[in-house]
Amino acid sequence: MRTLAERDIRVRYKQAALGLAWSLITPLALLVAFTILFNRAAHVATDGVPYTLFAYVGLIPWTFFSSTVGAGSSSLIGDQALLNKTYFPREIFPVNAAVVAGFDALTSLVPLAVLLAVHRRTPGAEVLWAPVILIVLAAAAVGLALIASSLVVYLRDVRLALPLVLQMGLFLTPVGYDISVIPARLRLPYAFLDPVAPVIAGLRNSVLLDRAPDLGLLGAGAASASLLFFGGWALFKRLETGFADVV
User: Fold this and answer.
1) Which residues make Cβ contacts (< 8 Å) with residue 222, sequence separation at least 6?
2) Global pTM exceeds 0.85
3) What is the DSSP secondary-structure string of 24-92?
4) Does residue 19 carry a pLDDT above 60?
5) Measured between alpha carbons, how far is 39 from 57 in angstroms, rounded to an integer?
6) CA gap 3, 184 in Å, rounded
7) Would you say 141 and 68 are in contact if contact means Cβ atoms under 8 Å apart?
8) Could you report the per-residue pLDDT of 162-201, keeping only the tens digit for each?
9) Whole-number Å distance between alpha carbons of 128 and 176
């Protein structure tokens, strides 16, 4: 996995003039778009947090999630030679997508630190919730990557449909707005159907507002992420025996 991750990172940035800066361009470009669309046009409520910080804390986990699922979905068919030559656990391919996306997410923490300094905000003790919240995010992302990668081998339409689904998810998930816009009676099922939503809400609470995350919403997201992870793993192992023949 380490070898594959190093290879993918080097190949991605080796001949790029801007190098690692490309890992920052996507969230920063979306931040500008969201600032214009939501802050200027829709006047999103941010609970007193500067909108740039509010949106950026939402963009980091969403970018990790979408990158993991997007790259993970094509990881098996993109490495056909290695898949057919050597035996090793095939789930390494989609899990490796999460490792590479995690590397990009770590680099995107640099602008976050700058924004926190510019706005003179220092996370309090509640920031210790962040690692717990990120486990939910990683489980959901890897689970969906396992499901998508195994299905793409047999049904290539999934690969074509996934970018559209992720693009819709960007606006259906409270990345540029607050989860409070969802009616209170619908938030729990919403958090279950979209586990990234309580992750973003929890990170905003713990990193920006010095509050504990809403444990009800986070619990619903954790339950959903667990189902995705273990269900995805089970589906992957069930379909794994035919990967080499079909690919």
Assistant:
1) 136, 139, 195
2) yes
3) HHHHHHHHHHHIIIIIIII----TT--HHHHHHHHHHHHHHHHHHHHHHHTHHHHTHHHHHH--S-TTH
4) no
5) 15
6) 46
7) yes
8) 999 999 999 899 998 999 999 999 999 999 999 999 999 9
9) 24
